[in-house]
Amino acid sequence: MAELNETARSHDMGLHTEQLTGRTQQRFFDISEEENHLYPEAFDVDFNKRTTIDAIDMDARDVNRKIRDLMAEGYGSIVVRNPQARHSLGVGILQRLNLIFEGSLGYFGVGLIDGPNVRVTGRVGWSCAENMMAGTVIVEKNAGSTFGAAMRGGDLVCMGDVGSRTGIDQKGGTIIVGGRTGAFSAFMMQRGRMIVLGDAGKNLGDSMYDGTIFVGGTIESLGVDAVPGDMTDLDCAWLERKLGMYGLTAPNGVANMTKIVAGKQLWNYDNLEPSEKKIVL
Amino acid sequence: MCGIAGIIHRNRSSDIGSEMTSMLQSLKHRGPDSTGFAIYGMPRGDEFVLRFKVAEQEDAAKGYNIHQEIRDRRAEVDRRLAELGVEVVETVDATEYAYRYRIKHGGDMRKVADYVEDVTSTEILSLGSRLELIKDLGDASTVSDQYALRGFNGTHAIGHTRMATESDVDIRSAHPYWAYPYNDIAVVHNGQLTNYWIMRRELERKDFRFMSSCDSELISVYIADKLQEGVDLEEAMVQSVDEFDGVFTYLVATSDKLGMAKDDMAAKPMVLYESDDLVAMASEEVAIRQVLPHEIDTHDPYDREVRVWQS
Question: N or C: more exposed end of chain A, with fewer CB within 10 A?
Fold first, then answer.
């Protein structure tokens, strides 16, 4: 690794490329431009200002409205008790926030978020963090199918097992599965990374355009267009760092994980101009 | 879309009618057209419960001289039961067009079923020593209240909230389906079977009857066929995953078992909770939370997964 320069290293990791060869891109923002990356209607919240909601007798709309009201009051850390596996909780939060659900979420939990750090102490149903753009979501138990569907950025972590079609249409960010993932995971994956520490079901990476999948256990079968890739030192370093952020380790070491990448280059997909690609992403 | 739910208590009974009502009511958004219950009560010795209807709810609201026709059809059913030597212990008019009979009969139940269903517009919803199958138009609370299901003591149940996609909105097309002619077997299903007609024709050639054009009925008939061949329930379900085309999750209940099967692509939802005392499953966890309101550990079964639990 020492002999590689920064550009070669980033190319090797597939982090970004100026040639638009289709590898996953990562943009590095100047911290001084922070204000350009906040939504105009974002509330100014203080992470040290903490409060708790008991959702036992509230419907999803009331819970979401309450979270918004509390953010408007400057609360930066919100705990929601008794979410009772209701659907669509914590959706559409477009700013920084520490949000903790003490319990389980139903379908479409924390979808369309851009920025918050979320922890769910229970399980999540189908389509958790769908279209997530930034932030982190950590699920302490299991997750249903289509976990991180169409995800665009941020880290989405499930400590347990996940259903089928994890990361379907994933367009960016990182999905980490602590246990097993079901069939058709990374189906039509376009960018980003998926790390599965356990086994992966059949047709992994079917019809994937791009992106990278790392699997610690066995793979039942690969889908069309998905092929094994070569693990590099930089892959290992990145995996160690990323898993370490969430207290996870690969059962047999990151070096023994299997790397899966797209086996075909899609001409029209890879030849988009940068501005067009940004829209697609 | 449709919603399905199942619950089975181990080594004890419960107010299974209220439990299934609340589970299905929480799934109303998945299908508001009709709701059905297959509830398994306590063993009744040598008695059977016959649930049947002689008209659709829609028929009862219109039609020339329909009320007299309904009375005539029921009278004909009574006459045929008597002709076959069936002892009717008790009758309950659940609605104008659907009835619950407690009966005793030592003879061939298939013959009874065939003869009763030969009466115009008559369909046996269920026949068994423990199974009671109730289905009608409306949400779970409406049907449960209409048929007085709350307080029904039993060991297990499956249920269905229907969003009609490929057949009519009527009782005939509502779930669950009884696995004619087998006592105590019922099926609910969420999904689509795309090789329905091919398989239906095969089963019709084996002399099985279909009362609707709903693909879910095929599952119950398929299971009945396998059981007739001497195949074990769980093995029949495993084989069904190979033979059915399409996307589906379905539940089967027998007098003392409850099973689930998921298709090859795991495309239809199911959330599962298991403990030593109770197993509950549903299309969405919100339904399970109706009977277990505290935090629980649940998971999604995977593709091709088949499970069977004993009461």
Answer: N
Of B225, B223, B153, B150, nearest to B186 (Cα)?
B223
Roughly how many angstroms between the first and final C-alpha of chain B, as a whole number?
Answer: 29
Q: Is B293 on the interface with A (CB under 8 A)?
A: yes
* pLDDT tens profile A50-108: 999 999 999 999 999 999 999 999 999 999 999 999 999 999 999 999 999 999 999 99
CA B91-B94-B95 angle, to 5 degrees, is 125
Let me know the angle formed at the C-alpha of B293 by B175 and B3, rounded to the nearest 5 degrees: 20
Looking at beta carbons, which residues of chain B come within 8 Å of A202? 303
Q: Is the dihedral of CA B137, B48, B187, B208 positive or negative?
A: negative
The pTM (predicted TM-score) of the whole model is: 0.88
Q: Which two tokens stand for residue B157?
A: 């149940």
Q: Which of B275, B21, B261 is nearest to B147 (CA)?
A: B21
Q: Does B64 touch chain A (CB under 8 A)?
A: no
Q: Which residues contact A213 (CB under 8 A, 6 or more apart)?
A: A185, A186, A189, A193, A194, A195, A196, A200, A204, A205, A226, A259, A260, A261
Neighboring chain B residues of A141 at a CB cutoff of 8 Å: 297
Question: Which three-class secondary structure string do you get for chain B?
Answer: CCEEEEEEECCCCEEHHHHHHHHHHCCHHHCCCEEEEEEEECCCCCEEEEEEECCCHHHHCCCCCHHHHHHHHHHHHHHHHHHCCCEEEEEEECCCCEEEEEEECCCCHHHHHHHHHCCCCCEEEEEECCEEEEEEECCHHHHHHHCCCCCCEEEEEEEEEECCCCCCCCCCCCCCEECCCCCCCEEEEEEEECCHHHHHHHHHHCCCCCCCCCHHHHHHHHHHHHHHCCCCHHHHHHHHHHHCCEEEEEEEECCCEEEEEECCCCCCCCEEEECCCEEEEECCHHHHCCCCCCCCCCECCCCCCEEEEEC
Torsion on CA atoms B105, B106, B107, B110, rounded to nearest 10: 60
pLDDT at position B159 over 70 = yes
Task: Quote the ipTM score.
Answer: 0.85
Q: Could you report the per-residue pLDDT of A175-195, keeping only the tens digit for each? A: 999 999 999 999 999 999 999
Point out the residues of chain A with pLDDT beneath 70: 1-37, 267-281
Spatial distance between the Cα atoms of B233 and B218, rounded to a whole number of angstroms: 16
pLDDT of residue A2: 45
Nearest residue on chain A to B305, alpha-carbon basis: A182
* Position B170 confidence tier, pLDDT thresholds 50, 70, 90: confident
B214 classed as catalytic = no
Nearest chain B CA: its distance from A201 CA (Å): 9
